[in-house]
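Here is the promised in-class demo. Please do not try to memorize the tokens; focus on the logic of going from shape to residues.
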């Protein structure tokens, strides 16, 4: 029982980290898109 609970907790931590990293990548993509637009103008 405790082993299953531990696995669930570990998965939740991975999801949190993945979400945080995903948000950072989204911000980077937005900055890259803005830079490309500025270069075109």
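The designed amino acids, position by position:
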């Amino acid at each position: 029982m405790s082993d299953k609970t531990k696995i669930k907790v570990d998965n939740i931590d991975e999801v949190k980290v993945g979400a945080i990293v995903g948000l950072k990548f989204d911000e980077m993509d937005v900055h890259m898109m803005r830079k490309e637009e500025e270069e075109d103008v």
